[in-house]
Amino acid sequence: MNEAMQENYTTICVQKKIPWSLFLEANPSVSADKCNDNLDNGFTYYAGPTYGWDLFLDRDDWEEEL
């Protein structure tokens, strides 16, 4: 396995300056229990969610704004 594939949660969080808890919340497919086992080479993980990333609006909310 090459070095790029050995990246773990801590490395990502430090490099991207994202709190561990936010990284886990933004990436529900990963688990704090198995930090290195859940990272898959070739997959994209959210390491910089923007403001409001966790807000979900239904269609009625959008229509009221228009």
Describe this structure in words.
With 66 residues, this protein is mostly helical. It has one domain (3-65). It contains 3 helices and no strands. The termini are far apart.
Task: Give short descriptive properties of this protein.
3 helices, 66 residues, elongated, 33% helix, mainly alpha
Write the layout of secondary structure elements.
Elements: H1 9-16, H2 20-26, H3 59-65
Structure, briefly:
The chain is mainly alpha-helical and 66 residues long. It has helices at residues 9-16, 20-26, 59-65. This is CAZyme family GH55.
Helix-strand string? HHH
What is the terminal separation in angstroms? 52 Å
- What would the average pLDDT be, to the nearest integer? 76
Total helical segments: 3
Question: The biggest beta sheet, please?
Answer: none
- Low-confidence residue ranges: none
Q: How would the global form be characterised?
A: elongated
Beta strand %:
under 5%
Helix content: 25-40%
